[in-house]
Amino acid sequence: MSETGVIHDIGYQRYTGPRLGRSAGVGALYVHGLRAAFGLGRSAKAKIFPWLVAGIALLVAIIVAALKSQFSEITFSYVELDDQLSWMIIFFAAILAPTLVSRDLRSNTLPLYFSRPLRAADYVTAKFLAMVSAIWLLLGVPQFIMFLGAAFTTKTGMKGVWHEVQDLVPAWGYSLLWALLFTSIGLLIASLTGKQAFAAGGIVAVFLMTTPVVAVLAQLPSSTANHLAGLTSPITLINGVGHWALGNEIGLDIGRYGPIYGIEALCLIAACLLLLLARYRKVSAL
Q1: In the chain, pLDDT over 70 holds for what percent of residues?
Q2: pLDDT digits over 90-146, tens only?
Q3: Fewest CB within 10 A of the end CB: N or C in the chain?
Q4: pTM, whole model, 2 decimals?
Q5: How many other CB atoms are found less than 10 A from the CB of residue 34?
Q6: DSSP helix/strand/coil, 156
Q7: How far apart are CA 158 and CA 154, in angstroms?
Q8: Do residues 89 and 179 touch, judged by C-beta distance below 8 A?
Q9: If DSSP codes are grouped into helix, strand and coil, which group holds residue 198?
Q10: 264 with 244: CB under 8 angstroms?
Q11: Which residue in 84, 223, 30, 57 sits closest to 146, CA to CA?
């Protein structure tokens, strides 16, 4: 007795609509990552920390703007705001980077991403840009609040407004450097584990445990070692670049080695991105 197979028509049809391709996938991942950075579309618990940090940054900017409008002798600059918020940025990056990449590792969603036209470089680009945008907004928006306060209370008219613009634009560039360096290091560490707590602890450890090294090297009798001490910590590295490029005052004396600080910052960002790309190319090949 032979059995005959039966094909049932269950209504599947070919897709005839537009195929958006890789660029749409990158854009969707970017928007999703940026929304996740501030807890949008997630539970109320996920919104607490990012909006608390953003609220503190905005409050500091409003207070500074109000004080500067009343007391002209206060010289707190846009660049100084970044330096004063550096510790908050560390913890913001330590929470954000695992949220963007460690969750995908833990939930095994990467094979689904890479089964589409999306490539490892596309995934890295989208996550990187999302985190850079989030950190830059965290710093750039409060700086803009300070700018509005100074622009509307200036006593020299458009000349004073133009002076504030000349201070704000370089400060936005300095904020971008913070975002680039913290993102590249944070994502690289977070990409190594699917456990968000381990990833967050590793990121905080890298930023905080390198700071005492700077203090030790700064106490050495060699002036060269003193000037180059800031190269050993990401935070003082950024401070050194800011001192060299923008002339902002910092506690560390970098001497004539400002270009070395700039070169190391660029090389560190590039190295972290290359390692991150190599990491996800390995994952996509599995």
Answers
A1: 93
A2: 999 999 999 999 988 888 888 887 777 788 889 999 999 999 999 999 999 999 999
A3: N
A4: 0.89
A5: 19
A6: coil
A7: 8
A8: no
A9: helix
A10: no
A11: 57
